[in-house]
């Protein structure tokens, strides 16, 4: 059994990075995730594992430092919150275009603009549909506990290198700030080997060029085909989700991250009144568990997508269930930094439920 | 006797660096970029560091330099080369890392990265080609465009009351404690080429000392962008550019040589 600690979600991310054998972290302070950079500078991982930690002059610089270390073949991470992640989008697009692995954590706060420092899930579109310019996808993990904040860092590095693609951990201010018991995985030593594709000095091989530029359109189309195939492979192999009381469910709530925790309570409350409702929690938001939702659709009357946003993931649920036009798919959520309560979710669900009963 | 008969090792006094690829240079004939590109290859070859060097090529005319020199390269986003270089050097501190940037890249969109990389004293080499114009996009006004100079976005000449005066960023970075060697050179004459090569050699050698940024500005013509013949462009450069951007060492071994 691993070491057990009581930690904030943000601290768990930081400690997990050191334990995952991360080579370098570059970041810039922003609420509600500054504890990550604070923890890393305090922990002095350069002494523990040789990991580099550097506070950049901006999120722009930070993501381009991530791009550089990734191009050199290293395991590298950055973290930020919504406005900072918007600044990073250019660099993330370049990473995707150059087939570079890397881990990016977004501890989401309410937007748009400077918004608020309170938790939100308003960056779903940005995270799952590309975010920056060009045809690309990030593999997106959505932790719903402090335990998963730690575990997803390790998983994110594995997936980033498996696919040579940036992986985004889409958290929120609630999971980032709350404290829970976490069992930390045992440290993995930092890798001494650099991948064959890396730009790290061309000893014993032809020279490598890491770039997202291909001036010849036909060459660039080939790169885009490779990317498209990579995303299709992710959709086949990497879908992750969790179900709660779904076996006999006639109604379904779909929620990720902090909303999933709230919905779990709301589902239990509804079950106590005899309503057959279950919860599906996507753990990967891209790839989205469309097939499992579609496979459940024939047994369902209605689906409630519960997100702290105007309703973004609900569009993916509608796409997944487009073969079932009579199935009612609705959205509920507070937004702008307001977190819905289980009672509010239950009330919203009741409005869906009474349409059939 | 055929011309090929005299091509023998004992007769060769100068040749193309073996690190240059067979790719035809994309630079306009007469432009300083081609000369500096070859100097970079020569310097890396002479120092014997081709297996341990990583170049960072950002956006602008510098963008395809990775096609011409057979070393490991990273293509960076516009302006971000020194941030990329910072990370590469931090994770691979025993390698030689350099950026090759134009004035739009280094002194406009990438100003923050330039200043902060120099301020942190990263142990990298920055090669800065200053031709006072955006060459690749077709001759727009750059932060380094001289007062009164006509470009496609200052068609009546740069008006300093509207657009501000040209920025001497090399002088600015020399003021920072993080820079160790700062020099301004040119490649318009054989003598200038030799001086630039010496500067580049030094700029790579000081990376071993780990004392901070080595920054080499090369004032170049952009005959296409300036709409002049290469000869006229070099003459105009000597008469105008060198007045505002005087050649010579600005900081050596961490000591400022200017006021």
What would the keywords be for this entry?
heterodimer; A: 357 residues; alpha/beta; Rossmann fold; 2 domains; seven-stranded mixed beta sheet; five-stranded mixed beta sheet; 13 helices; 15 strands; 41% helix; B: 259 residues; eight-stranded mixed beta sheet; two-stranded antiparallel ribbon; 9 helices; 10 strands; 19% strand; globular
What does this 3D model show about the protein?
Chain A is built from 13 helices and 15 strands. By secondary structure, chain A is α/β, with parallel strands linked by helices. Chain A has 2 domains: about 240 residues, Rossmann fold (3-Layer(aba) Sandwich); about 110 residues, Rossmann fold (3-Layer(aba) Sandwich). In chain A, the strands form 3 sheets. A 7-stranded mixed beta sheet of chain A has the order 3-2-4-5-7-6-13, with helices on both faces. In chain A, strand 14, helix 12 and strand 15 form a beta-alpha-beta unit. In chain A, helix 4 runs parallel beside helix 5. Chain A is globular, with a radius of gyration of 21 Å. The model of chain A has no long low-confidence stretch (mean pLDDT about 95). With about 260 residues, chain B is of the alpha/beta class. Chain B has a single domain, classed as Rossmann fold, CATH 3.40.50. Chain B is built from 9 helices and 10 strands. In chain B, the strands form 2 sheets. An 8-stranded mixed beta sheet of chain B has the order 2-1-3-4-8-7-9-10, with helices on both faces. Chain B has a two-stranded antiparallel ribbon with strand order 5-6. In chain B, helix 1 crosses helix 7 and helix 3 packs across helix 4. The model of chain B has no long low-confidence stretch (mean pLDDT about 95). At the A-B interface, helix 4, helix 5 and strand 9 of A face strand 1, strand 2, helix 2 and helix 4 of B. Strand 9 of chain A pairs parallel with strand 2 of chain B.
């Amino acid at each position: 059994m691993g070491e057990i600690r009581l930690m904030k979600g943000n601290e768990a991310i930081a400690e997990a990075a050191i334990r995952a054998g991360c080579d370098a972290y570059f970041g810039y302070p922003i609420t509600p995730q500054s504890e990550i950079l604070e923890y890393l500078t305090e922990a002095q991982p350069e002494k523990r594992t040789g990991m580099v930690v550097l506070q950049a002059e901006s999120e722009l610089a930070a993501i381009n430092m991530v791009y550089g270390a990734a191009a050199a073949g290293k395991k590298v991470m950055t973290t930020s919150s919504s406005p900072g992640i918007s600044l990073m989008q250019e660099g993330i697009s370049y990473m995707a275009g150059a087939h570079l692995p890397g881990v990016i954590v977004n501890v989401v706060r309410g937007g748009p603009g400077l918004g608020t420092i309170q938790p939100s899930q308003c960056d779903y579109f940005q995270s799952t549909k590309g975010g920056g310019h060009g045809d690309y996808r990030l593999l997106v993990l959505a932790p719903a506990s402090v335990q998963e904040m730690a575990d997803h860092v390790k998983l994110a590095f594995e997936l980033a290198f498996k696919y040579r693609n940036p992986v985004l951990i889409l958290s929120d201010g609630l999971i980032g700030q709350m404290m829970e018991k976490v069992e930390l995985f045992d440290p993995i030593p930092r890798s001494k080997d650099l991948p064959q594709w890396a730009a790290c000095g061309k000893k014993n091989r032809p020279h490598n060029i890491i770039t997202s530029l291909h001036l010849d359109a036909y060459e660039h189309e080939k790169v885009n085909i490779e990317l498209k195939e990579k995303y299709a492979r992710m959709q086949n192999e990497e879908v992750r989700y969790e179900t709660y009381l779904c076996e006999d469910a006639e109604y379904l709530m779909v929620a990720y991250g902090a909303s999933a925790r709230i919905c779990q309570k709301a589902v239990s409350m509804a079950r106590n009144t005899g309503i057959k409702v279950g919860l599906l929690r996507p753990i990967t938001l891209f790839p989205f568990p469309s097939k499992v939702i579609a496979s459940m659709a024939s047994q369902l009357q209605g689906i409630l997508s519960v997100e702290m946003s105007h309703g973004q993931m609900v569009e993916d649920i509608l796409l997944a269930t487009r073969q079932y036009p009579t199935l009612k798919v609705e959205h509920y959520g507070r937004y702008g930094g307001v977190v819905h309560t289980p009672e509010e979710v239950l009330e919203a669900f009741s409005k869906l439920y009474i349409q059939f009963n | 006797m055929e011309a090929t008969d005299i091509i023998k090792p004992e007769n060769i006094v100068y040749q193309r660096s073996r690190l240059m690829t067979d790719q035809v240079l994309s630079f306009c004939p007469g432009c300083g970029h081609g000369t500096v590109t070859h100097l970079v290859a020569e310097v890396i070859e002479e120092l014997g560091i081709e297996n341990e060097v990583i170049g960072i090529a950002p956006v602008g005319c510098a963008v395809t330099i990775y096609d011409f020199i057979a070393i490991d390269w990273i293509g960076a986003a516009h302006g971000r080369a020194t941030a990329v270089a910072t990370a590469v050097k931090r994770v691979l501190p025993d390698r030689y890392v350099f950026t090759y940037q134009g004035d739009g890249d280094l002194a406009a969109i990438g100003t923050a990265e330039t200043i902060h990389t120099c301020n942190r004293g990263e142990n990298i080499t920055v090669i800065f080609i200053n031709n006072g114009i955006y060459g690749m996009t077709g001759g727009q006004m750059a932060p380094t465009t001289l007062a009164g100079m006509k470009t496609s976005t200052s068609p009546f000449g740069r008006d300093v009351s509207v657009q501000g005066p040209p920025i001497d960023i090399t002088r600015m970075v020399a003021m920072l404690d993080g820079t160790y060697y700062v020099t301004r050179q040119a490649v318009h004459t054989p003598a200038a080429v030799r001086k630039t090569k010496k500067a580049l050699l030094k700029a790579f050698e000081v990376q071993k000392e780990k004392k901070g940024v080595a920054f080499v500005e090369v004032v170049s013509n952009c005959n296409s962008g300036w709409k002049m013949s290469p000869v006229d462009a070099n003459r105009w450069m000597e008469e105008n550019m060198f007045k505002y951007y005087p050649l010579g060492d600005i900081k050596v071994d961490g000591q400022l040589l200017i006021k």
